Amino acid sequence: xxxxxxxxxxxxxxxxxxxxxxxxxxxxxxxxxxxxxxxxxxxxxxxxxxxxxxxxxxxxxxxxxxxxxxxxxxxxxxxxxxxxxxxxxxxxxxxxxxxxxxxxxxxxxxxxxxxxxxxxxxxxxxxxxxxxxxxxxxxxxxxxxxxxxxxxxxxxxxxxxxxxxxxxxxxxxxxxxxxxxxxxxxxxxxxxxxxxxxxxxxxxxxxxxxxxxxxxx
Length: 217
Fold this sequence. Notes:
The chain has helices at about 1-65, 70-85, 100-125, 135-170. The chain is mainly α.
């Protein structure tokens, strides 16, 4: 009887330990779910602001194209860059786990940013656009959208950092991969990415004259 009592006590202790481990594992799993959902939610926000920019571009192109003798090659470049972004297939509601896919998406968006920035620089040569109310409205909307893109990408990286840290922490790292929690890639900095394209039109300000060179002897 004594041995039986000891055996029951040992089994009871083991059962309690198992229950505690299950509770801990369950809480850890639920935390990973919340963090993963947080990354996906922020990814959707990034998609929203990029889509907002894409929706503004056709109106911008049509407005600028109305300026006399506007450089058509610049308009074509923006239109083609926008089309290239649409060819990169990503899930708008679930953050990618493939770094190559995110890099491809980021490269396409970066190409569009560069083309759009060049178009706006060229537009500064056409003072008649200043009188176009639609153009001025697009200027303000694009400036705000570029800033939002920068903000939402930063928040996305913060959410990814919290998630990746969690799945790599002990003891979660022992099982996170087994239950489907994989590391997610970040948006990486590209040349000039730290500063959003400046959507500003100073038509009334003439370009400064170049500094005089040395007087020839």
